[in-house]
Here is the input.
Amino acid sequence: MDLGLAGATVCVQGGSKGMGRAAARCFAQDGARVAILARERATLEETARELARLGSPEAFGISTDLSDDEAIRRAFAEIGERFGALNTLVNAAGPTGGSLRTFDQLGDEEWIEAFEIGALAAVRCARAALPLLRKAEWARIVNVSAHSTKRQTAILAAYTAAKSAMTSVSKNMSLALGPEEILVNTVSPGSFASEGFRQAMAGLPKERGLDPSDLGDCMRWIREDFGHPAHLPRAGDPSEIGPVIAFVGSKRNSYMTGANINVDGGSDFT
Ligand SMILES: NC(=O)c1ccc[n+]([C@@H]2O[C@H](COP(=O)([O-])OP(=O)(O)OC[C@H]3O[C@@H](n4cnc5c(N)ncnc54)[C@H](OP(=O)(O)O)[C@@H]3O)[C@@H](O)[C@H]2O)c1
Here is the structure.
């Protein structure tokens, strides 16, 4: 299926690792020009080289702290200079789970940090990208939220609240931008063995016998510590969600907006 991405211009924030990078790879393979935003320069540069190898005619990273509105504005000014217009913005950056504490154990700073990266970064990026999206012949925004918004875990209080805010504002963006045919959707991942995920798992006590490279063990951790089982007996690999994000963010998706798509290995969530 031709997604209509050849020559399209795409920005994936959080595109240097995990699910964001998996999506960026799909856009690159289909011939899109891709800008990726994250903090670590080395991973950005390495990923940009990989995207070029995969077929992107223009791939580059901009080191950006997405909790800094000024830095976001500068990044989109640079994207504007290079691309002129933007077809697709993917907001994928975020922590895998944030500070694992109950609501009363979290201080204001941690709450604010969770909202800055979990929700406000998507709003700030969409706001900064809007003039460029409006210049494009077709435009899409994809917001990567989380399945944990649909089932509470006490120690994911701030993370879940921030992702719930992102899911809500994503729907609002769809309503606000619908008249201009800028389509906005949410993709809600279940458990994915991304870099962030594996790193968090690597810190677990050895005696638990959980191997971060084993997708079955990844799901066992999630089931035991967070109570989020899936129908499938394993976690997802980021390469299994990248194509979903790419489709939702493509020209080919022409009538789905305001949707919240679960990619979670099976759940009872609607
Ligand atoms: N993995 C899961 O099981 C899971 C489940 C549900 C939802 N999610 C959500 O899905 C998205 C992708 O998660 P992932 O697990 O694939 O992530 P990951 O492997 O941890 O990668 C996170 C990406 O975001 C960037 N990032 C993080 N904080 C940033 C900041 N302050 N400024 C700029 N860039 C920042 C990272 O780059 P730098 O570190 O270089 O900045 C990296 O590119 C996140 O929004 C996450 O909350 C994940």
In short: The mean pLDDT is 96. Residues 192-235 form one domain. The pocket of NAP is lined by residues 14, 16-20, 38-40, 43, 64-67, 92-96, 117, 144, 146, 189, 191-192, 194-197, 238 (CB under 6 Å).
